[in-house]
């Protein structure tokens, strides 16, 4: 048994190494421009240091569980943790530096490891039900899931994305240190674009990164945390299949990978909440009485705003302008639409070619016009379950293979 445990631990270390090396290759080995490289080096995220700090934490927590007597139910712990997140957000705006804020942060910190462990166990259960447990040789008889679900709620790295100005294409991207201010992000973007006027740059905030353990952004809602945990686990799982191993090629392979993780992650999260339910408040809010004020009459000003449709239409218009060489017009259009979106409640810090290049890899999102998105949606419907969808998609590496899988 000791040899088996040692071999399993070695597999985990190998997975962590894959996460570090893979992220480094994806974000650094694409032939960067001098300005982008210099900006990334000044603000780089140290993957190795992060792994060494966080990889042992889950296992130390589980070992320590033998000596702990946890108070309250799992749902109580989850509810309190995310309530504290809301309270911290409010206090950070209203009373920064206050004792109340410090106490709330300390209490949430004390709950964090337990909350991670609860969610990991529940996510694992859903994956088992979908037959998505990858059981490597030597371990199948033990029923051990590989890769084990492991994540850390932590500020994730930012990403510097760079695209040519005359087309939408992700040329380079780098992991940057978490917590960069808006001013620093703007300075990085301006420096890259000043050094090379032919490129468009953007510093992006990520929701998570598939290191091992994966990073999931703190301050998110329970629903968003669960969705991100599934998404990042799928990246780790797919490393053992052609779709995951082809990620480094970029292009269609990366779009397929990100889109499969997005679509399947959302479907798996839906099953999670079907099984465990949402977090109900301890005291239900009072039922509002009947209103004596008549509802407002709809007007042209109140017409519904379809952000997805607006973004796809903008992307098509920008592509057309760039194809005609009308770069300045395309950039002016994006800036004008950014202001319009903000006026309608959808804030985008900066909307440019790099924005579309980065988010366009997620073919099921408004920033993409890639036909891969609808084709994967068709595959999901035909597969009948998220687990079967992932198993079928894991073997493809291109849109043509997806077409053959769909019988097209």
Number of strands: 6
* Count of helical regions: 16
Distance between the termini: 49 Å
- Overall outline: globular
From the structure provided, what is the oligomeric state, counting identical versus distinct chains?
Answer: single chain
- Listing every helix as H and every strand as E from the N terminus to the C terminus, the arrangement reads HHHHHHEEEHEEEHHHHHHHHH
Largest sheet: 3 strands, mixed
Low-pLDDT runs of 5+ residues are 1-8, 23-33, 287-293, 297-301
Query: What share of the residues does DSSP label as strand, in percent?
Result: 5-15%
Query: In terms of structural class, how would the helical and strand content be classed?
Result: mainly alpha
Strand order of the largest sheet: 1-6-5
Helix % is 55-70%
Mean pLDDT: 83
Give me the Rg, rounded. Answer: 23 Å
Describe the protein in words.
- This protein has helices at residues 2-28, 34-42, 47-54, 57-64, 74-94, 99-129, 182-195, 222-238, 242-245, 251-276, 307-323, 327-343, 353-359, 372-383, 386-393, 399-406, and strands at residues 151-153, 158-164, 172-176, 199-205, 208-209, 214-216.
- Helix 2 (34-42) runs antiparallel to helix 7, helix 8 crosses helix 10 (251-276) and helix 10 (251-276) packs across helix 14 (372-383).
- Strand 5 and strand 6 (214-216) form a beta hairpin.
- By secondary structure, it is mainly α.
- The chain is built from 16 helices and six strands.
- Helix content is 57%, strand content 7%.
- The N and C termini lie far apart (49 Å).
- It has a domain at 2-69 and 152-276.
